[in-house]
Amino acid sequence: MEATAVAHNTDPLLARFLSTRDSVQAESLLATLLQDEAAPVIARVLRAKTGRGGAGGAQDRIADLTSAAREELITRLLGARSGEDSIEIRNFRGYVAAVAYHVWAQHLRSENPGRAILLNRVRYLLENRTSQRGFAIWEDATGERLCGLQNVPAGSRPGESTPKLQLLAVDVFAVARDAFGGGDWHGMDLAELLHRLFRWLEQPIELRHLIDALVELLEVSDEKVSIDAPSAVTIGAEFVDPATSAIDALKWTEYLRWLWDAVGRLSLGQRTAFLLHSDVTREFELRGVASLRQLAALLAFSPEQFAAIWPALPQDDATIAERLRLQRQQVINLRRVARDRLGAAWRDWIKS
User: Fold this and answer.
1) Are 114 and 215 in contact (CB under 8 A)?
2) Count of domains in the chain?
3) I need a labelling partner for 63 at 20 to 30 A (CA). Which of 72, 177, 200, 292 fits?
4) Of residues 132, 160, 129, 133, the one with CA closest to residue 144
5) Cα 171 from chain centroid?
6) Residue 206 lies in a domain
7) Last residue of some domain: 68, 89, 111?
8) Are the C-beta atoms of 89 and 95 separated by less than 8 Å?
9) Domain of 106, in residue numbers
10) Which of 224, 246, 267 is the last residue of a domain?
11) Which residues of 212-227 are buried (b: 16+ CB within 10 A; e: fewer)?
12) What is the pLDDT of residues 214-263, one digit of tens each?
């Protein structure tokens, strides 16, 4: 292994590994970094992502993902040391977390593409980012995501074992026959399906349980769903809900390229309020439209600072407000202006 020049702001945890000319010492330092610094971060990220990790299958999956994250991290660090990869790592632990998240995201896309696409579409509806309103999504005191209709009292959470929730868990098709009056739900608009299901439940439901039910009800098959199928997104008054064909996936990528250019013309505050709050930010990276480094530069972050917050995106308004040293309502106002300008720019663009 060859040493490379080390920037003055490189994380001290890495500096010796990157600069030493002694290959034996470099290997020893790398082993220490992986064991003492990287391993706990990788474990924490993957435990959080996989949820309950007690079952044997979950433990096997964590072990496989841990190995994959470790291998990718080693490859990147060796590339940085040799000079093949010109990366600047100011926060090593944040960088490790970003690598672990990247491995987890790849795993999800390869294992459950259909579920991931459905989850994204449901979230956009629940967050009222489309013209079809009336939904709500929130977190309870434990961080569990709950959802329902907007008229549900703030702070509500589902009962532990209500009859309707129990029936939904054991026989989703019986629920569908009751909730949809015997109608064919396969051709039903997703927003209408959610409205009817929430009205039948008469209470909030945990998001993961809702998605479990919808996957079974809609017979979501990962073999039938293109992994490149994009999720829905709202810009201003425009609602883009691409289908899953290869042609539509290409159109979605072209749209993202337009959006990337348009976002770059917003003020720093507007694009920060918009991008840190939006799932579309991940799409830029996933589709190869913009790298994490480019996203960081657009938002006036260092690459390491942005890598550290990447696993937590999208962020809520309170977190963004604290970052921008603004009031929460000011962040909401900035994003509203950003969406209005993007919507106007989009309408002008499609007319040209």
Assistant:
1) yes
2) 3
3) 292
4) 160
5) 30
6) yes
7) 111
8) yes
9) 12-111
10) 224
11) ebbbebbebeeeebee
12) 888 887 755 433 323 333 333 332 333 333 334 445 566 777 888 898 89
